[in-house]
Write a structure and sequence with these properties.
mainly alpha, single chain, 0% strand, 156 residues, elongated
Length: 156
């Protein structure tokens, strides 16, 4: 599936710079801390900036629930915790909330709101930093692949 998606991305007729930009914006979205909103953000930006939808969605779906979601979440929290000088291990109160979620009780939600920022702040800061770094790295790599594909196509 990944190989097929990359082939489709390389076959887009838009200028390589524009396709690489759309892909890197998708990568930015993929690493952003706005979980659950990635596809909506990609769609809005694709329409707003007239990006190729395949390119932006391919970048966005770098973060997918089957392979990369958990590593990206862990890396985002770890980077944010390191930047804030916090321990990498989640505090016991947060681990308890994750181990035994009592979603239908008011006490659970009060505790989550009271202690959630201890997890959300490092996760958000780390996610935004990874978004910037990974999207900046994705642009030149994608552009190089697209230009190489275009030059092979022009030669043959």
């Amino acid at each position: 599936m990944f190989r097929t998606t990359v082939r489709r991305l390389l076959a887009i007729d838009d200028p390589p710079e524009r396709t690489a930009l759309a892909f890197s914006v998708g990568v930015f979205i993929a690493f952003s801390p706005f979980l659950g909103l990635h596809t909506i953000l990609a769609t809005l930006l694709a329409f707003l900036f007239r990006f190729n939808k395949l390119a932006i969605y391919t970048g966005t779906f770098v973060n997918n629930p089957f392979l990369t979601l958990v590593p990206i979440i862990v890396a985002s929290y770890a980077v944010g915790a390191l930047l804030l000088g916090r321990p990498l291990r989640l505090p016991d109160a947060q681990m308890e909330l994750l181990r035994e979620p009592h979603l239908l009780t008011g006490a659970y939600w009060r505790t989550l709101l009271a202690h959630g920022w201890e997890v959300l702040l490092p996760f958000s800061i780390g996610g935004l930093l990874l978004s910037v770094v990974c999207s900046l790295a994705a642009y030149p790599v994608t552009l190089r692949l697209l230009r190489a594909k275009a030059s092979r196509k022009a030669e043959g």
